[in-house]
Amino acid sequence: MSTPSRNSIQMPPAGSNLPTNVFSTPINGISSNGSEQDPFDVASALGSTSVSSAPQPRQRKFKSARLVGEYEKPWVDGPRDKKMKWERWIFWGFIFVGFLGGAAVCYFAYASVSNLDYCLILEDNFKEIDEKVWNYEIQRGGFGTGSFDWTTRDPKNAYVDEQGLHIVPTLTLETTDITPDQLLDNYVLNLTTAKTCTSKEIDMCSIRSNVTAGTIINPVRSARLNTKGKKTLRYGRVEVVAKMPKGNWLWPAIWMMPDAELYGDWPASGEIDIAESRGNHGDDYHDGRDSLISALHWGPISVADAFWRTSGKHNVRRRDYTQKFHTYGLEWNEEYLFTYIDSRLLQVFFIKWKKGHKNMWERGNFGATIVNQSALHDPWSQTGRANTPFDEHFYLILNVAVGGTNGFFKDGVGNKPWGDGSLSAPKEFWMAKDRWYPTWGEGDTRGLTVKSVKMWSLGKCKNGLDRDL
């Protein structure tokens, strides 16, 4: 092998006093004397004698730089300290005031929740469907909402088990002898002839399917139970422990209607919606089953329903009302009405009757409303009460409707397969069965499950006993 050039980076120039670069890797691993060496042998590169014989530095004992004894502390004793003391006082003062303010808010919120006397008039844990308490409503006409279900007393649609009461919608073709062809054409359903219809209106009790007209037999059957004439309430509390159903276009409802329509046909005599929901998934339908709605319906005529002035909703995140049981409640008296979920502090809707308005006619501004070029008639003010029509006896209703043409399910939202204005809306709904039926939960999860119902009337019980239990 050849000797490394004097111009290489390993060797200093000729005549230079600079030492050889000991940190460089020897060329081809050959030392200056021609013998092979380990390119990583630093000791050889430096010279073994210099490494072993170099004097080792003496280790000095660690000495702390910490100050000892008395010395000045200008950051404590100087004028800046007074300012810092005030800053600390101001900071902790605001913290204290914040705690006081929070405590005051909590106290007044708690104090605002009334603690009135109530008398328990109904407690049903659903060991059976007690017909001393509950009525079946049987018809096929949609109850004024245009819903597509035919309500029955079939045990497949309403039954009890260890969980409580189940109200479950089923397909008509699965629970009757009606064939697919008959559902669409040339079949007469007459509940009056069958002596089962609970409505006095012919259209609510009978229908003939006709393929030309687009009318069909109700494609879905469900159930609707109420306490009319048996358990009613004029001021008091209601609590229903329930779990909502899962499935597109299902419409569960826990609500109340007047036992006697003292002020006229709906909505003149009022309606109280304690809890309503939609079975659609919240990702597919805004305000689906992750949303809970409460409202009052009232107005001198149906087209002037002012529910939008007296409604509220509560949405939950990353979960929905089909996943577990909740308590849906109502508290109602001459001063106020509110609905709540699980706790009276979690209110969905609240109204104080006299706040801002003398009566409901004034609250709705109906005096300035013209319908069909005519002024509206005031059915309420003559009572002199601020809460009329919500001053009469109401009964409780539990049901699961399917679809509808009253706008509860908005056109164009969530891939809705029918139009509210269509004369063949039920058929349009049915023809889209392959889209909505797979979304319905298995078994009773497609239904409203009610664990218990309690009703209390306002005031103490007579002789200290619960009334009529």
UniProtKB/TrEMBL annotation:
Stretches the record annotates as Disordered: 1-42
Pfam families membership: Glyco_hydro_16
Record has Transmembrane helix as a keyword: yes
Amino acid composition bias (Polar residues), ranges on this chain: 1-10, 17-36
Keyword Membrane: yes
Membrane-spanning residues: 89-110
GO BP term, pick one: carbohydrate metabolic process
GO function terms (MF aspect): carbohydrate binding; hydrolase activity, hydrolyzing O-glycosyl compounds
Residue ranges of domain GH16 in the record: 111-461
Alphabetized SUPFAM superfamilies for the sequence: Concanavalin A-like lectins/glucanases (SSF49899)
InterPro entries per record: Beta-glucanase-like, ConA-like_dom_sf, Glycosyl_Hydrlase_16
Entry superkingdom: Eukaryota
UniProt keyword terms in alphabetical order: Lectin, Membrane, Transmembrane, Transmembrane helix
Family note: Belongs to the glycosyl hydrolase 16 family.
Protein name, entry field: Concanavalin A-like lectin/glucanase
Source organism per UniProt: Ascobolus immersus RN42
The organism's taxonomic lineage, starting at the top: Eukaryota, Fungi, Dikarya, Ascomycota, Pezizomycotina
